[in-house]
Each structure stands twice: as C-alpha cells, then as structure tokens.
Design a protein that fits this description.
2 helices, zinc, T_Elf1_sf, five-stranded antiparallel beta sheet, Elf1, N-terminal domain of TfIIb, alpha+beta
Amino acid sequence: MGRRRKRRKIIKKAVRIPVLFQCPNCGSHTLSVTFRREDSGRKAIISCSRCGLYYEYNNVPSIYQSVDVYNKFIDLFEEGKISVEFKPVIGAGEEISGEEIVEELEELGEEIGEERDEE
C-alpha cells in the first residue's frame, strides 16, 4: 500500500504597485510620483531623477494612487496638453574623482576634530 499524497499548497503572489515608472522623455525607469497635502487639496509631484523632468498635478482625487497619476500624466504628455519643466538634477554630469572625495573627507574630519576640542 502506498502513502497518502500530500495536497499542494497554492501560493498567490500579491501584486505590488510600482514605485518607479518609465520616463516618457528619456526612457529610463526613474520617474517617481510623490503626493503632498495642501490646503487646496492633494497634489502629485512627478519627477525624473535622470533627465530632470518635473510636473505638478494639482487637485488629485483621493482615490488616485501613483499608477493612476502616472497614466494620466502620460496621456496628457503624449497629447501635448501639458508643459513640463526640466529642473537640474543634482550630481548629474559631474564626475568626482577619488582624490576629491578623500580631500573632502579629510576636511570634514578636521572640522569635527576642532568641534570636539572646543567641547
């Protein structure tokens, strides 16, 4: 006689809402959507950390999530109904050598040492 077969457990993966989206300008997956509460209502800020694309979407309905705002933004961007800003990205285009980093760390170490001596 054989052993009784065990029943397989079915594991369902939860669908997660993405945090980063594809930028329509540069094509990289660095576009983020953040929400802010203001007196006039809820505001969504859409920004790309690579090309500096920036757009503020005002009066966002409370049921909208980041995916909904992204899809609405893409629709408006593709139709040309909105004008976006391009803010400079911090650290983009600048390459820092290892020597410059060491020099900055040494300067910080000296400043911290001076502060400790004063205490």
